[in-house]
Amino acid sequence: PDPVLAIVGRPNVGKSTLVNRILGRREAVVEDTPGVTRDRVSYSAHWSGRNFTLVDTGGWEHDAKGIHARVAEQAELAADMADAVLLVVDANVGATATDEAVVRMLRRKKKPVILAANKVDDMVQEAEAAALWSLGFGQPYPVSALHGRGTADMLDAVMEVL
Ligand code: GDP
Ligand code: MG
């Protein structure tokens, strides 16, 4: 079977946009309001002549558990079925308490994590991406899922650990 890459992160950071960018087609549902991606959706993807399975996560309806717990729970389910994890953070917002909750969960999994600092649409925003070194997953890869900026370097890094 193909190796599995799970895309995790809090709502609205651009996970589904990044999935579409990687797939090269608009298949994952992107919304301006969070809460539209079903819990976990798998896609067949390829890069550098290799096939892999991409798992997009969502399902962020606010229930009694609250948003932190829902995000961490969905991220954990996806991470458990994955060989590597692509953690997406909004570089313009920076690391939030919800991001930190996901980071703590991922650290326990001991699986390879590549950190994507998304919404870096231009060079000026790269400083914001660099601030995400603080999350402890090594080099943050500055990307713009919307425009495709930086995604090739990020995918090369993913392939080294997948
Ligand atoms: P998800 O909830 O993490 O799956 O996020 P979505 O992919 O649905 O995107 C949420 C919003 O962020 C949408 O309005 C996207 O157009 C926007 N977005 C995603 N990636 C980028 C990016 O690289 N730059 C900018 N400026 N906006 C983005
Ligand atoms: Mg989504």
From TrEMBL:
Residues of the full protein shown: 79 to 240 of 518
Keyword Ribonucleoprotein applies: no
Name listed for the protein in its UniProt record: GTPase Der
Single GO BP term: ribosome biogenesis
Keyword Nucleotide-binding found: yes
UniProt superkingdom: Bacteria
One Gene Ontology term of the molecular function aspect: GTP binding
Keywords from the UniProt entry: GTP-binding, Nucleotide-binding, Repeat, Ribosome biogenesis
Stated role: GTPase that plays an essential role in the late steps of ribosome biogenesis.
SUBUNIT field: Associates with the 50S ribosomal subunit.
Similarity comment text for this entry: Belongs to the TRAFAC class TrmE-Era-EngA-EngB-Septin-like GTPase superfamily. EngA (Der) GTPase family.
Binding residues annotated for GTP 1, in chain numbering: 9-16, 56-60, 118-121
Domain EngA-type G: 3-162
